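Example 5.3 — Secreted protein
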Amino acid sequence: MEVGQVRQKTSLRALVAVGTMVTCLSAGTVPVGAAPTPPQLEAKEVDVPVVNGSFDQPRIAPDPKKQDWEQEHYGKGELKPWYWGRTEPNSAAGVVVAAGTHRAGRADGKQAVRVDALLDADGNLAQEQLKTRLWDVRKGSRVTVSFDYSPTTDAKKCTSTGAEEQRKELGLQMRVDGKAAWQETVAAPTFGKITNAEKKEVEVGKPNWKRATYEFTAEADHPEVAFALPDVKYGKDKGKTVAKECHPMIAAVAARQRPIEVDKSHRKHTLPPAQAFKGNDRSDVGTVLGACGNSSNACTFTLNQRYSYGYYDRPRPVGEVYENCTFGEDGTAAALRDKRKVVYRERSFDSGTQAGNTQFLDSSSHDGLTEQDLSHDVSHAAPSQGPTKVPADPSQATAGKAAVHFAAAYEAVRDQPWQWSRTVTRDIDVITPKNHASWVEVSAARERADGHYTVTSTDAGEKTVHRLFITYDGPSRITSDRVFQRHGTLSPTEIERCKTHRPLPYTPEKDPVVPYDPKDGDVTDESLTPGTAVGVRPGPSPSPSASAK
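Solution (predicted structure tokens):
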């Protein structure tokens, strides 16, 4: 039989969608629950934004009263590169090197950073780190990281007493998710003489910038990239440490990726877990939602269209199944006609709570819901006091403000408001042929929205960035549901049931009706308990006066 042909069998099932008539194969022919195709790499390579990858923040302004060779190497004070480090502000293990010919010495005129991060005795990153994350790079993506490196140009401090021994080659290492990925030896720093305006010779450093590139497959979402010096010891028995001013520099950190395609194997109730970060370190979902709900912080939601898509959910039966047990010779005459009201409901899910969200932005949507239903939801705006009189939950209200940012961002991109819930009622005319069953199935149209919250807070004058990567899944306003009116032959069990007699309760004809009376003095309990057969029950005991007569 050729592909595309329908095998004719008595068990053939027919489906009628609204406006569409289709015929499907029997249950033995259609593969059920086939696994989706594993996601592959996209063909096109795209840029990956690296936060402060050019080390422009903070910017070191030159002193207008000094000539170029007189400018301070690190400005008026040693400044840490913003966003490179652990959770706490100004925690990066590095110092910004000012732009200029005799400082960073970059052809693009930009700043650089001196690498001060070291490894501990076990070969792992020490407490102070110089690191960032490649945001929105997903597990399985093919990533290329590139950066420049050069020996120091700090002629003032790397030429002090004993500096000759410290002007040595140093290893530079790049680590991905804590593992050593790339390592190279940086040449020893070199210095030269120039004649200043006063016709005096001064010593200046000579940059020697080289470009490095490393390619890897991401083993986790949002991979961490860090730079460190594996060995800074020198002298007899390596008892001395190279001065920080002699450490090498890095600059122009950039990344590109071939993104992994979206993984559509996750069901709506098993979405990938939400991931929260404070700076470059992991945090918890509640902290970021709370920060987003704080009106003093700037909170935005960014929709990731690469990993957002619409789809049809698995078909599911709704309403009752009607079975036609008539066995007339005339098939048309034996068909039964009926009108039925079919009601079904769709609601939203999210990876932050991984639970059905029964809370919506308009109070009328709460009709029919209980207070307990609403109190367990922490993702959406708290219900207002209205006809339902559902009290607001303070924690729900705070976290719920995040959902407003999400809904606004989604509508701005898709030109359709997000739909938290949908209840559909349909009146359907049903014709059930003899020896058949009829029922209704719905394949709901849904939208999966992937993105992240970015919350910027200010603490002691320093900016802290929170991020929460989250997935929402809800009923679609863009695509219509598929509603199938179905019928098919009865199963053997259903056919046997059709052959049985109509169940009837036992109706006594001559037995007296005896009311239950616990005070009538009977020794037999007249009450019927579950499982007690209905039969002849004892009549009332004769009274003493009646016996005497």
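Remark. The chain has a mean pLDDT of 79.
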